[in-house]
Amino acid sequence: AASTRISVFTAAVPFISVLAACSLMLVWAEHWPANAIFFRDAMILATAGAMTAYSAPRLLEARGASGNTVDRITSIVELDQLAGVFGLMLVAAYFRPQGALVSWQLPGTAWLFLTIGMGATVGGVIYAALSRVEGGPEFSLLVLGSICFVSGMASFLRLSPLVVCFIVGIILVNLPGGPKDQIREALTRMERPIYLLFLLVAGSLWDARQWQGWVLMLLFVATRLLGKWLGVVLAERRTAAGLTQEERRSLIFSPIGALSIAIVVHEGAAGAPLL
Question: Which of 50, 181, 212, 241 would give a disulfide with 275, using CB separation of 3.0 to 4.6 Å?
Answer without folding.
Answer: 212
